[in-house]
């Protein structure tokens, strides 16, 4: 059980680090493209949409796979 908890903790931490890294890269890109403008809200919105869509798509695929099992063509 402890191994599973440690694995889950490590996966969440890796996802958090990845999200922070992606946010920094998007902010850097926007700062170079639009110098002098505060694009942090745009970057945060993009990352939020990007990460929530990825989760929603995965859940949708899992849902479709569960319901398509056993259906033969």
Cα-based radius of gyration, to the nearest Å: 18 Å
Tell me about the largest β-sheet: none
The helix/strand series, from N terminus to C terminus, equals HH
How many domains make up the 3D coordinates? 1
Poorly predicted tracts of residues: none
Task: Assign a percent range to the helix content.
Answer: over 70%
Distance between the termini: 41 Å
Structural class: mainly alpha
Look at the structure and give the mean pLDDT.
Answer: 83
Q: In what range is the share of β-strand residues?
A: under 5%
Number of strands: 0
Which descriptor suits the 3D outline? flat
- Number of helices, counting only DSSP H or I runs of 4 residues or more: 2
């Amino acid at each position: 059980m402890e191994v599973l908890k440690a694995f889950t903790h490590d996966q969440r931490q890796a996802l958090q680090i990845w999200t922070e890294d992606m946010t920094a890269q998007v902010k850097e890109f926007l700062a170079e493209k639009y110098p002098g403008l505060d694009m942090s809200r745009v970057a945060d919105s993009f990352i939020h949409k990007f990460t929530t869509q990825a989760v929603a798509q995965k859940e949708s695929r899992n849902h479709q796979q569960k319901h398509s099992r056993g259906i033969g063509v």
